[in-house]
Amino acid sequence: MIFKWSEYIELSEQLINNGESSDIKSAYYRTSISRSYYGVYCIAKDKVEEYLGDKVPKGDSHTFVHDKFNYSSGRIAKKIGLDLQRLHIERKKADYDASEIFEKEQAKTILKQAKSLLKLYNDPNLKIDSRH
Length: 132
Known about the structure:
Layout: H1 6-19, H2 25-52, H3 61-70, H4 75-96, H5 104-121
Helix pairs in contact: 1-2, 1-5, 2-3, 2-4, 2-5, 3-4, 4-5
């Protein structure tokens, strides 16, 4: 059975809901933000690989995937690229910046953005046509 990347989004929601009653709330919210990003990033990566007919190159794969959307001609693809970049910034703060404080509302906002991306991925007008 193939793992469904969207399950990271479900996990993110559970982490937010369970974080409030925990002594380690910040860890729950940070992990929620990280999983929200990775859920939508991995789906985007799969879509780019489908478009390319090949694997995304190793190295800075996140930028490669973002750029494939950003440099596509369609409005939906461009929105996906921009939103992925924004979520990526938040994910890096959550994973690497110990001085950054994350609250429940921030995690909920990131989750909401990730869910919006899931809807855009299924839009019949989504076209990835970047030659970049």
